[in-house]
Amino acid sequence: MKLGTARSLSLAAYLGLIGWVMAWIVFLGDVAREHISIWLLLFVTPLLLPLRGVLAGRDKALIWAALVSLMYAVHGGMVAWSDASQRALGLTEAALSLVYLVSASLFIRWRATAAEAR
């Protein structure tokens, strides 16, 4: 039960983070229209690199994605701290990345514990 919940929450948070970053760049943020593609390339590509392994539930990919998500937690916190007009956007980015970090960590730990018990 808790293993499935942690897995579902980590997947939802990671995919939500990808979607949120894309929506922020394309629709919500104040990115110039001619620079949208470069910002998408810079901000979304690091999240897409471990995506295949995250979807498959591989431990190494989950760990790498957690490390990558830390950059987005820092970025979201920095934006929330420095730009009052985009505070909600930054806090949402930081929250999604931290939810993924915690839920993926718990999923890896609980799955290892369940495998040891067998």
Summarize the structure.
The protein is mainly alpha-helical and 118 residues long.
- Label the overall shape: elongated
* Helicity level: over 70%
Give the SSE string: HHHHH
* Biggest beta sheet summary: none
- Rg, please? 15 Å
Number of domains: 1
Characteristic terms for this protein:
118 residues; mainly alpha; 5 helices; elongated
Description:
The protein has one domain. Helix 1 (2-28) packs antiparallel against helix 2 (36-48), helix 1 runs antiparallel to helix 5 and helix 4 (59-82) packs antiparallel against helix 5. The chain contains five helices and no strands. It has helices at 2-28, 36-48, 51-56, 59-82, 87-117. It has 118 residues and is an all-alpha fold.
Give the helix/strand layout.
Blueprint: H1 2-28, H2 36-48, H3 51-56, H4 59-82, H5 87-117
Helix pairs in contact: 1-2, 1-5, 4-5
